[in-house]
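User: My advisor asked me to double-check a structure prediction for Integrase catalytic domain-containing protein before group meeting. I don't want to rely on an old file, so could you generate it fresh from this sequence?
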Amino acid sequence: MSVEIDDKEIAIAVLNGLPPRFDNLIVALDALGNEDKVFGLEFVKSRLLQEEQRESMKTASASTPHAPALSDFTCLLSTSTPEKRAANARSWLVDSGCSAHITFDRSLFVTYEQMQSGSVEMGTKARANVAGRGEVEFMLNVNGSPHSCKLSSVLHVPDFGYSLLSVSQMVSKGMQVSFENDKCIMLHERMAHVNVQGIASMIHNNVVSGINVRQSDVISAMNPKSGNHLLICPACVFGKATRSVIPKQRSSSRAQNCLDLVHSDVCGPLEVQSIGGSRYFITFVDDHSNWVVVYTMRNKSEAFAKYKLYEKLAQTHTGRKVKVLRTDRGGEYLSTEFKSHLDLNGTQHQLTTAYTPEQNGVAERINRTLIDLVRSMLSHKQVSKRFWAEALATSVYIRNRVTTPALPVNTTPHHIWMNSTPNVGHWRVLGSKCWYTLPKSELRKLDLRAREAIFLGYSQCSKAYKLWDGELNKIVVSRGVKFDESTCGMHDIPAHESDSINSNVDVVLLDGDNGYTADTPNTDEVGSCGITPNGN
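Assistant: Sure, here is a fresh prediction for Integrase catalytic domain-containing protein from the sequence you gave:
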């Protein structure tokens, strides 16, 4: 019909024709915006190939391991000339699209077994013959130092132009692999899915300690033109897709001192009860430091009791009194006893005008930010919604230790409130599978030394991790923990056990934490000042 079909239309037609299993990818691509640049056929093709390879690797790792048929090896690269082989003689490429380690260099093998048949399918659908396989030894540069490396089951493909390290093979051996441009994404997961550019800026300017990343990677992540904006975090797409634009400029200047102005707001009811039986949470935000403290509540009527907890905590920490409390006109803030308490302590109560929530914008934005982070973390590791309070506690813990546009550059709430630089080297990805060490005093010689659990956050009363032991149906607090952040621990707990959690959850303290003499803390109450308020 002599109609010209442009590249964008072809790309959209391809996306429209995909089966349902690609829906997550389509949502992620749509969230990028800038259709003229993103929806090119080559870009869509590359993302589809990556998604297909990722799904294939996931399926392969979930099934029972078996030796591949001799024609089952694949590689997305193609064969090449002798000149290219000579140029690549000393190079090994890390390849996520290759199902086996491959090299063309026969001299690298320390053991060798000839193969009479077998081939590797290339990205062009052509096949290259496999001459043999065996063990290969070579020197690997690790942080500037040479280290000997041995690979098993390496294919010898004489017609190939590269030496490839297969990601799927390394992962199957228990290794963790991350590509150069993705290193900041891994940190991003540990940091409750906060903004990647903000994380890179903190590292670059030494705002926090405990992170070892090459400066070239950090600078690349900070630069929006570097291509990192095309890296998609599906958990963020699902968790933050409805986030509205937040004004960058506030209408008034920041308070001069801690507790000169405190913002507060109640969020809820949430659709799922926490494991402690809560459906609401209340936030308190110090305007000067932007330090956040959150408490969960079973009912809105608990707001006054939670304010008194916060008031005592904050005043003890700072040596100052709350001068102004700014809230909306919710009934939980307007009770007679609440008003009398504020008057008695000389605290001015500023109320927003009816139907103008933007006047309480600081607290409104904090609540929205925290809920976004909670959704993203729960989605990323497919953690049960019943653990939203633990995810909320982790969000607050991290939010208080990362930079924010509300504060001067290179400053976190922790810098101002705690007067120290936050260390983030112990942060881990919420929902990851982990193993905690059992106390030796409780073990016999042949007993297992550790138990499997799920990482839920950070203890507020000691330097330890909070874990969920699904078999015991308990929260465990322990310092001796080994993590596997590449897995989703929640999949290992049968659904009926997750659904049967009641509000009377025990807390087991290990590794010397048994010295904590206060009443067992309510695991839903989130006091991010280093102290967890006692349970009811």
